[in-house]
Design brief:
single chain; about 325 residues; alpha/beta; Rossmann fold; 5-stranded mixed β-sheet; 5-stranded parallel β-sheet; 12 helices; about 35% helix; about 10% strand; globular
């Protein structure tokens, strides 16, 4: 109920969808459900495949969702268009960013040269469901077809791409260990990987530093306590994006502590993911962000070290305390 109310609040705080109320007729293809609409007579010889997900979740969960639909779109020969303007995501701001209200285009270039304005005047438009289907691929790093689509069809927005390239120059001529540790909500997320403990983080990091003679550590984490841990233990090696929002609570999408906060959350996630992909070595726990970093594969010689603690319970109540219990138990009793 709490999660439902949170999503409802986010929807109310964003601009009201202008199209959704008109979606009446439904048409089913092989797999997902679609809405078929004819908005006018423009482009009568083309079929647009409009990808929407409202309110969606994290940036690379949304990217994975789009890539799954892009694969279907290519198979059927339709023209892909992402609409996160009329169907807002959690990253939408109330003002235009880079002259657009489409939050997909805050971070990525269009999948096709057609504008939303033209699509909504066209004769044949298929509109996707918001549902992430069970037969979709969830991990970009495992599905090679989706990884290939990410590398070839998803183009980073030009300003952000320049920003990434400028920051990545700090990695040149250095052995850089990228680290991504999830905290906050991951500790209680049903059906998700169990996060690493502090002991696991420090043990593996020290081991790789010693074995690989690491010059710098690039840390990505949303938990403030983890950042403090690494600053204390690796003060001369640690680098991180100081502008990123961090907290010890799962509140990144519940509060608005800075100007353009929603846009910045997505921008930071994207740049951090690209930088992790650039590192020589990578310690990670499975997540959408780490999958994205591996799938971009910007450093083809990157050595990777995954921490596998198993999955949290699918029972929502059990998931609230399982990780906290397992980190206290010895390994021979099922601890981490």
């Amino acid at each position: 109920m709490i999660q439902f109310l949170k999503k409802a609040f986010w929807k109310l705080s964003l601009k009201s969808p202008r199209i959704q109320k008109d979606l009446i007729s439904k048409k089913k293809f092989d797999g997902p459900y679609y809405v078929f609409k004819s908005f006018g007579n423009l482009n009568y010889d083309k079929t647009f495949y409009l990808i929407k997900r409202s309110p969606g979740t994290g940036l690379f969960s949304n990217v994975t969702f789009v890539l799954n639909h892009l694969r279907i779109c290519k198979k059927l020969g339709f023209i892909p268009v992402v609409d996160m303007e009329n169907y807002n995501s959690i990253y939408n701001e109330k003002i235009a960013i880079k002259k657009t209200n489409n939050s997909w285009e805050y971070y990525f270039q269009k999948l096709s040269p057609y504008s939303l304005e033209e699509v909504y005047k066209s004769k044949n438009v298929l509109i996707t469901s918001d549902k992430f289907y069970n037969f979709f691929s969830f991990n970009l790093d495992i599905d090679k077809n989706l990884s290939q689509l990410l590398q070839t069809d998803i183009k980073i927005e030009k300003i952000l791409n320049k920003c990434f390239k400028r920051i990545s120059k700090n990695f040149e001529n250095k052995k850089v260990l990228g680290i991504h540790f999830r905290g906050t909500s991951y500790k209680k997320s049903a059906g998700h990987p169990l996060p690493a403990t502090k002991k696991q983080m420090l043990s593996l990091t020290n081991k790789i530093i010693k074995e690989k003679k690491i010059d710098k550590i690039f840390l990505v984490t949303e938990e403030l306590e983890y950042l403090k841990l690494f600053k204390k233990n690796f003060p001369n090696k640690l680098i991180y994006l100081k502008s990123c929002y961090r907290s010890n609570k799962n509140d990144a999408f519940e509060i608005y502590p800075r100007n353009l906060h929603r846009y910045k959350l997505g921008r930071e996630a994207l740049i951090e993911t690209l930088l992790l992909s650039k590192c020589d070595y990578f310690i990670y726990l499975l997540s959408n962000l780490s999958s994205g970093a591996i799938a971009f594969n910007l450093n083809t010689h990157q050595e990777r070290f995954e921490i596998k603690n198993g999955m949290n319970s699918n029972n929502v109540l059990t998931a609230q305390f399982l990780w906290y219990l397992k980190q206290l138990l010895p390994k021979n009793l099922g601890g981490l």
